[in-house]
Amino acid sequence: MTPSGPMSIDDGSDVNTSRSYLASPARRSNCSTSRVTLLVIVTSALTLTAGLLLGRFAIPRDDDDESGVFLPGAPERLMESGDSDVAQKILDGIEAGKIEENLRLITAKPHIAGRQADFELVDLLKARFQEYGLQVQVTPYDVLLSYPSDTVPNSVRLLDGDREVIYDAVADESDLSEQPGVVRAFHAYSPAGLVEAPLVFAGYGRVEDFDWLRSQNINVTGHVVIVKYGKMFRGDKVDIAHANGALGVIMYADPAEYTGMGSGDTRVYPDTWWLPPDGVQRGTIFTGDGDPLTPGYPANNLAYRPNEADVKLPKIPSHPIGYGAAEKIMKHLGGMEVPGDSDWQGGMNITYRTGPGFLNTSWRIQLNVTSHNQRAKAENVIGIIKGEIEPDRYVLLGNHRDAWIYGALDPSTGTAAMLEIARVMGKLVQTGEWKPRRSIMFCSWGAEEYALAGSTEWVEQYVATLRERAVAYINMDTAVVGNDTLRLGAVPLMHKVAYEAAKKVENPNPAERAAGRTSVYDTWLHIEPWKDDNGQSKGVPRIDDLGSGSDFAPLLQKVGIPALDLWYSFDPALYNVQWFALYHTEYEVFDIYKSQFDRDFKCLQAVARVSAEVTRSLADSLLLPLGLSDYSQGLHDILHTLDNDYGAVLRKNLLNFGLELSS
Ligand SMILES: *[C@@H]1O[C@H](CO)[C@@H](O)[C@H](O)[C@H]1NC(C)=O
Ligand SMILES: *[C@@H]1O[C@H](CO)[C@@H](O)[C@H](O)[C@H]1NC(C)=O
Ligand SMILES: *[C@@H]1O[C@H](CO)[C@@H](O)[C@H](O)[C@H]1NC(C)=O
Ligand SMILES: *[C@@H]1O[C@H](CO)[C@@H](O)[C@H](O)[C@H]1NC(C)=O
Ligand SMILES: *[C@@H]1O[C@H](CO)[C@@H](O)[C@H](O)[C@H]1NC(C)=O
Ligand SMILES: [Zn+2]
């Protein structure tokens, strides 16, 4: 380390005078040789002194009492990792029964963002954090949300040539839709609008599906399309349909993917976790991030807000229905049969046809979306345990609080677990058994279901501070969707800390323990051994890259905070699905979680323990447990993938695309 001239000059007042003198352009031109010589001598002397001082104190010496200590005289505990007994105390302290109580309480009422039940949960979290001895901050934002009409529900109807209603999808809506607080099926941010047109089945609604329709001379312009959920974000389906000229979109979850029929199991909720015909997946179809009215800036009182019409919101009405209703509509579709051996087929008891229009060509589909956008309050509740030695370094653990309906899995499993971690850590701090080195922040995000609004606005407000101070973020959204194994998405920097934590946590499955796989890590490695591109085992369990579907996205992508997302998952060999089938439906309730996913809450307890240990390790280690060589390897792998998938295209189209792969 070489002290720079101006830095050492700043310290002496005499020399300071010469600095301002030198800075004056009028005098500089007259500067005499002797003055310059004097300055060189003074600067050299100061540099030499600084060098000697650094040599004496900053470089460890064997004959020194403070050997290895960077700051002489500083208390030794500043230079050590935290008390390692604390790790076990935290793991032991986390109780499955307490997590179950939390989940029951949080899911007692539907709690969509921006409405009364969500505000009540804000109060609950605040009170709990305070009870656990945490400092609490609530950060409110004024964001644009979207709700169905209270008086005229959204509707999908089949009309005959005289515009008489032959079938109304409301007939197959779940009875639960009538319960107070249960938001009826809708797609958030869909524009309102009434459309009557012939129907076209457009598969999954991907670009290639529309291309295929075009290749069959099926023109969707001026038509309503019906598409299956799956393969991609629902909002993109609406954008793609619009780009292809469709006037409106109807979306449904096909039983081929949302029931157990593939394995011959015809049972559905409440006997199993499979989707019944009237279960409907809600969700946003906005393809932007955060509050649509304040992109890039926090949605507070000072924010500039353009007109809604000038904001990039979805352009055509879209509405979700159950497969019960979809079957009653699609069985009348005309046109050609879809290709036999293709993913255009599905599990309904009909002949799948493309349209356009119905077997009776005078029939039309009528879609009436009556939802509206509305500004509402989205609050984040932040509970803080202040660090003892590096209070201005933040380890963040978070999850959203809002749910489309009861949210028993998404997101409340995560919130129930996070509260238990806060309780246990808070208690250890309160009793003086633990003083974490760095600060820990428990973040309960608002309005995540609306394009990650709460976390995005918070990041937009505090981006400068977070960039300097945030150490890492652990996301706990939907913490259990099965009882098979832990699964993770994370940046490579955080792989190591996750592996180490998973090794310390007892396996929740007695059969696995009996088979000798005593830790969460053992089963994870057994089920998900990670192989590289050449099929070579890496000797560790697989960790996915992070996508964008939850609150880690703004923290990672807008600030660069290393992030990790974790959950307990089902066995993909047993369940050939991407995600749990009841996702975002009215049937995501406490009882189904308890009866079908995690009877004794041992899986959720295990996820809570892994998260807690990752958090503790990040908060307490002297050196941050982030894997730098994993990071370099990860970048290398990504580059390799990019080159494999797009190298030829990029080299052809970009002037400066040169990939330097060393192996
Ligand atoms: C089409 O439906 C109308 C009723 O809307 C009916 O009168 C007519 O006979 C039907 N046409 C065919 C070919 O089934
Ligand atoms: C599709 O239909 C629209 C409206 O009828 C028409 O303007 C357009 O030219 C058609 N596209 C093709 C490729 O036929
Ligand atoms: C499928 O539909 C056909 C014709 O409507 C009916 O006869 C059959 O019973 C249905 N099968 C099932 C499994 O519902
Ligand atoms: C469509 O919705 C509007 C409210 O946005 C309502 O006034 C109208 O009656 C509805 N039309 C039909 C045919 O359902
Ligand atoms: C895991 O879940 C499945 C499906 O609900 C259940 O049949 C099985 O018994 C569960 N296993 C354990 C160890 O709880
Ligand atoms: Zn969620």
For the largest beta-sheet, the strand count, sense and barrel status come to:
7 strands, mixed
Strand content: 15-25%
Report the mean per-residue pLDDT as an integer.
90
Total domains, how many?
3
Q: Which percent range fits the helix content?
A: 25-40%
Span between N and C termini? 34 Å
Radius of gyration: 30 Å
Bound molecules: 2-acetamido-2-deoxy-beta-D-glucopyranose, zinc ion
Can you identify the CATH class of the largest domain? Alpha Beta
Can you tell me the CATH topology of the largest domain? Aminopeptidase
Let me know the CATH homologous superfamily of the largest domain. Answer: Zn peptidases
Strand order of the largest sheet: 1-12-14-13-15-19-16
Number of E-type strands:
19
Strand and helix layout:
Layout (H helix, E strand, L loop, with lengths): L4 H7 L1 H11 L1 H4 L4 H25 L27 H9 L2 H11 L9 H16 L3 E13 L7 E5 L5 E4 L18 E2 L4 E5 L1 E3 L5 H9 L8 E5 L5 H10 L4 E5 L2 H4 L24 E2 L33 E4 L1 H8 L33 E6 L2 E14 L4 E11 L11 H19 L7 E8 L7 H17 E6 L9 E6 L4 H10 L5 H5 L5 H8 L1 E3 L5 E5 L10 H8 L3 E7 L20 H8 L4 H19 L7 H26 L10
Parallel strand pairs: 4-9, 6-7, 7-8, 8-10, 13-14, 13-15, 15-19
Antiparallel strand pairs: 1-12, 2-3, 2-11, 5-11, 12-14, 16-19, 17-18
Helix pairs in contact: 1-2, 5-12, 6-12, 7-12, 12-19, 13-17, 14-19
The protein binds 2-acetamido-2-deoxy-beta-D-glucopyranose (5 copies) and zinc ion (ZN).
One 2-acetamido-2-deoxy-beta-D-glucopyranose (NAG) binds next to loops.
